[in-house]
Amino acid sequence: MDKITVTINGKACQGNRNDTILNIAAANGIVIPTLCHHYNVKRYGACGICVVEAENSPKLMRACSTVATDGAVYYTESERVVKVRKIALELLMSDHEGDCKGPCSLNCPAGTDCQGYVKAIAQGDNRHAVEIIKEKIPLPASIGRVCPHPCETACRRAHVEEPISIAFLKYYAADKVLASNSPVLPKPKPASGKTVGIIGGGPGGLTAAYFLALAGHAVTVYDAMPQMGGMLRYGIPEYRLPKSVLDKEIAEIRSAGVKMENNIKIGTDITLAQLRDRHDAVVVAIGAWKNMGLGCEGEDLDGVMGGIEFLRKIALGLPTGIGKSVAVVGGGNTAMDACRTAVRAGAEKVYVIYRRTRDEMPAEDIEIDEATEEGVVFKFLTNPDCIIGENGKVTKVRLQVMELGEPDASGRRSPVPVEGEFETLSVDSVICAIGQKVNVSGFEELELNKRGIISADERTFATSLPGVFAVGDATNRGASIAIAAIGEANKAAMVIDGYLCGMDIPYRKPYVSERDTDDIDFTRFEKSARVKMPVRPAQQRKHDFKEVNLGFSDADAVAEAKRCLECGCHDYKDCKLIKYANMYELDPDRFAGEKHTCYVERKLEVIERNQGKCILCNLCVRECREVAGKGILGLVDRGFKTVIRPEFRDSSVISGCADCLACVDACPTGALKFIGNKK
After folding, report:
1. Which CATH architecture has domain 103-184+515-561?
2. Which of 156, 282, 381, 473 lies 20 to 30 Å (CA to CA) from residue 603?
């Protein structure tokens, strides 16, 4: 067969005469995106994604259907090509009606494939579930216990009755794998010869360490505390997160090749400059360990302490001197941890002072409920006016009575003082849990923002010093939840890996297609109550620090996981459309307009067709006709109204669909799904 030579993107490529540009490119390791082409069927040239530019040619040409010319010079990513390809993708996405990922995953700060691991649990495959989780989170058993689960806030099962218990399922599966003594630990890439120093052994620092170690870099974590874990160890009580669980997960991170050094304080034991000299990159993940003050008279009295300070002393086994009567100020989860810990530390009377009502409390309902069961008294619509003491020691706290006014920037109604109305409580100590700040001592070289927090680029995580990156509570917006620090550290690890390999690749949020919830009929789903987490009785648990939750049984975990509606696309990881859409920054909204009607049909019995995901590439039609020899599928109507539909002459026509599936295999978007053997 005659050979020809063409040049593609500056590379000389040999091919056969009468070969298409696409085939020659593929044979020479050059990828040209295409949605309507498949090696099984004849050339078609419908989608327009595979356009390329030929030197000295006024027109772009479709690589899948254009025969290459000997000596020609082609470009697959020229400015003209990219512009046209983007328009083609934007037009397709503007008419696309489907969820790439479930809203649970989209609302998870770490981007965890919640639907994927919940499905694995439903199938009884806990190991695979943990493999999925560890793609994003190296501490699943710990995080599953403490995360306030924004994934569940977004769960569409709530439109049926109640959200899936996603977080508890996470730690159920992780516990099962931990108990098996066969950890899920991916094999690290070959050693890169680069070193990374990570300052801070909390959830953010440990996550960055884990993923950078797996990328082949030599990683050392430096932490000021006696043991690794950060706030997971020193800010989360034992009854919520047993440290034996945390220890096992940290040991797994260490086994990935991460070196850990404790009792190392920056500015005292070593300087930031020295770490920069020692490592090719440095990651600052120091968290927010300083407490915000009350700003009222008497807060400097003995017996007034911060929530984080109190919890840290408990974790270290140090005396707290809280006495028998304790007031905790705040309405978040740290306040709940503090008040419930005070009960376990021997306080006989514990108050929570909160300036709004329960409806406005940011703490989780389960934490408030369990604190109430344990005897904590909530003083809603009150705020400390002053702290009173004798001989320098707290004796009382005077509360200003509040009422709710107009909503503030967060949407909550602002509390305003009721003039002249006060209440006084006799207390031995006051624990302030109204927020956290960053201690930047030792990091004065880094640029700070107006709030006194380390400034880091939100796409590169770079600080003002070359080679120094920062993530988590110590940056930009300040203290948040652990899963947010983990998510940021995961993204930063990818960027830092690129930096160490000589590439500048800022993080870009993946583009996904999302369905409008208003278009979904939730009445078709059978109601099934959420499985409740069994807990120890209040009168028993409040006297010790043993774990409150008893854990799901195998049967309960599987039953709960099976409640998942599987909102995300089954073919997301292999979908060519979304893969190509993420190669470019798209704006499909500029082509917003009429859409094809979205519907799901099962006329093929073993194959589900989702018209909302169909891009009319016609591959399924051609596969059915040219490969299967059946011709069941066909294009119906003309112009924009064109759709693909099955047409049957008799029931025997589809009898071989389950054994064929050529259309399902060829579909580039997940519009076709195999749903089981024909009965």
Report:
1. Orthogonal Bundle (1.10)
2. 156
